[in-house]
Amino acid sequence: MGFEKNILCIGAGYVGGPTMAMIAHKCPQYRVTVVDINPKRIAAWNSGTLPIYEPGLDEIVKEARGRNLFFSDRIDQGIQEADIIFVSVNTPTKDFGAGAGMAADLQYWEKTARQIREVSRSQKIIVEKSTFPVKTALAMERILTATANGVRFDILSNPEFMAEGTGIRDLEYPDRVLIGSRETPEGLTARDELVEIYANWVPQERIITSNIWSSELSKLVSNAFLAQRISSINAVSSLCEKTEADITEVARIIGMDSRLGDKFLNASIGFGGSCFKKDILSLVYMCRQYGLDEVAAYWEGVVRINDYQKERFVLNMLETMFNTLAAKRICLFGFAFKANTGDTRESPAIYVSRRLLEERAELVITDPRALVNAEADLADVQGQVTFAEDPYEAAVGCDAIAVMTEWDIYAAMDFTRIYETMRKPAFIFDGRNILNHEDLFTMGFNVFPIGKPPLTHFC
Ligand code: NAD
Ligand code: UGA
Fold first, then answer.
1. pLDDT at residue 459, rounded to an integer
2. Torsion of CA 94, 96, 97, 99, to 10 degrees
3. d(Cα 139, Cα 129) in Å, to the nearest integer?
4. What is the pLDDT of residue 1?
5. Which residue's alpha carbon is at the smallest distance from atom 11 of ligand 2?
6. Whether residue 265 has its Cβ less than 6 Å from ligand 2
7. Ligand 2: does its nearest atom lie under 6 Å from the Cβ of 266?
8. Distance between CA 37 and CA 372 in Å, rounded?
9. For residue range 233-279, what is the model confidence (pLDDT) as tens digits?
10. Shortest-distance ligand to the CA of residue 17
11. DSSP per residue over 137-184, as a string?
């Protein structure tokens, strides 16, 4: 069967895989191919066990795969056949040279742009799907047009706003789809072609177009604002703990102001995930490059509060458990950076684990989806950590449980049974405020939520 368009995505990761699966699912008239330099990842996408866990993903991949959705490691061929190429490679924080620890590492997209230029024989639209510093599109244009081989490229910015764990719903019913373009006749034509793809399932009023720099910047700023909200509520949680105010009540009260809204106000052990920290640091670095030091310092504060929140959690455990954690057995409930994903990138649980080990605690880690990643994250301290699938078994003989991830299963567990198997006094540190603290206290636990008065049996 002939397809209306050939769409290629370079980068088969957490974004490339699900976004392309959604396009293929909604648009059987297009042929969608996803390529990657990592053949193992491609093999997993072609197998019965996909490389990432995302609710609803299996169903749409299995429905479209082999029909109009293909995963392949033949990148050159994919480029040659494509009309539209989404670039969804990783843009991690640079860990070498100038800007190390702050700037985005742009080597992956740069390599991709050069490869596109070298093998292309026909006109293409190149879509920035990854999150990039502002003006990356300009650099991309310069690379793509550096040799006059007569092939025309139009660059668009189409940042992705999906969140892991709710990715499929976010892709199917997005708050908005953003498409930035050059405001030239060719740029606007390319933009309309991408609008046409999304219009297959996204209502027109949710497809927003803008100039290309606004689009690049809006993605970074969206993540910065979201992360800022978490740091704000977490900063207030520390004040609640000093004043006997309750963060859940405070969040509810401020969230009822329609100007503020009630979402993203859950106090926690801190935000994790592959993007918030790296995107804020990229923003901070960019501000400094433009000489905007005050602005840079403002945004850097969001990351600083997040680091403070994680350390505060560990110090609270230490102080509460009689100022020594040496040889205490502590069970972490959850390791993923949030519920409904197996992703552990930048998970606060990594920091907490390492700090607890520094204090010479013994660690037991349980998580319904993230144990493989957890073992890889802690490979260098192998032998000092036990991993257990069953949370009941994990808690046996422990002095404390610390909730790291807000998985529903934890709130539904039989804590009377758990209490019986633990060492006494038994502690619970609820880093997500998902448990019933009064009930736990009545069972005998000493309970330490985030941003609420603790419930202890000590006089
Ligand atoms: P990822 O690491 O899961 O996937 C990136 C993939 O690109 C990897 O599989 C890697 O092998 C591949 N790759 C790198 N260089 C390549 C090359 N030259 N040719 C072919 N493949 C190459 O990353 P991700 O989480 O999917 O994120 C990708 C981008 O999307 C980042 O810029 C991120 O900031 C942004 N983003 C991520 C999310 C999210 O939920 N993870 C959401 C919105 C935006
Ligand atoms: C985030 C954004 O929400 C997406 O819009 C964006 O596309 C994505 O980053 C990205 O660019 O990668 P994600 O990191 O997958 O998505 O998940 P979030 O739901 O934003 O959660 C991030 C972290 O904040 C998690 O650790 C979560 O537990 C924490 N969080 C979230 C809180 O501590 N409190 C809250 O109220 C909300």
1. 77
2. 30
3. 15
4. 61
5. 275
6. yes
7. yes
8. 22
9. 999 999 999 999 999 999 999 999 999 999 999 999 999 999 999 99
10. 1
11. HHHHHHHHTSS--S--EEEEE------TTSHHHHHHS-S-EEEEE-SS
Residue indicated by tokens 């957890």:
374
Cβ–Cβ < 8 Å for 167, 57? yes
Atom from ligand 1 closest to the CA of residue 91: 32
58: three-class secondary structure by DSSP: helix
Distance CA 276, CA 267 (A): 16
Ligand 1 centroid distance, CA of 39 (Å): 15
Question: What is the pLDDT averaged over residues 56-76?
Answer: 98
Ligand 2 pocket member 163 (CB < 6 A): yes
Neighbouring residues of 346: CB distance < 8 A, sequence distance ≥ 6: 272, 273, 274, 276, 277, 278, 337
Mutate to test the pocket of ligand 2, among 223, 265, 333 (most ligand atoms within 8 A of CB): 223
Confidence of residue 148 (pLDDT cuts 50, 70, 90): low
> For ligand 1, which residues put their CB under 6 angstroms from it?
10-16, 36-38, 41, 75, 88-91, 108, 111-112, 130-131, 160, 162, 164, 274-275
Cβ(312) – ligand 2 distance below 6 Å: no
Residue 275 Cβ contacting ligand 2 at under 6 Å:
yes
**Alpha-carbon distance values, 346 to 274, 340, 395 (Å):** 6, 16, 24
User: Of ligand 2's atoms, which has the minimum distance to the CA of residue 170?
Assistant: 5
Mean pLDDT (whole number) for 287-316: 98
pTM, two decimal places: 0.97
The set of residues, in sequence order, having a beta carbon less than 8 Å from that of 265 and lying 6+ positions away, is 229, 233, 251, 254, 255
Mean pLDDT of 120-124: 95
Beta strands 153-157 and 124-128, pairing class: parallel
Q: Confidence band (pLDDT; 50, 70, 90) for 145?
A: confident
Mean pLDDT value across residues 224-232 = 98
The three-state (H, E, C) secondary structure of 426-444, written as one string: CEEEECCCCCCHHHHHHHC
The residue type found at 235 is A
Pinpoint the alpha helices (H) of 257-327.
276-289, 293-320
Residue 110 to residues 140, 148, 241, 312: CA-CA distances in angstroms? 7, 18, 47, 40
Which residue, by CA, sits nearest to atom 1 of ligand 1?
13
Q: Which position has the token pair 């032998």?
A: 383
Could you tell me what percent of the chain has a pLDDT over 70? 100
Pocket test for ligand 2, best of 276, 278, 408 (most atoms within 8 A of CB): 276
Q: Is the pLDDT of residue 149 over 90?
A: no
**What is the reported pLDDT for 150?**
84
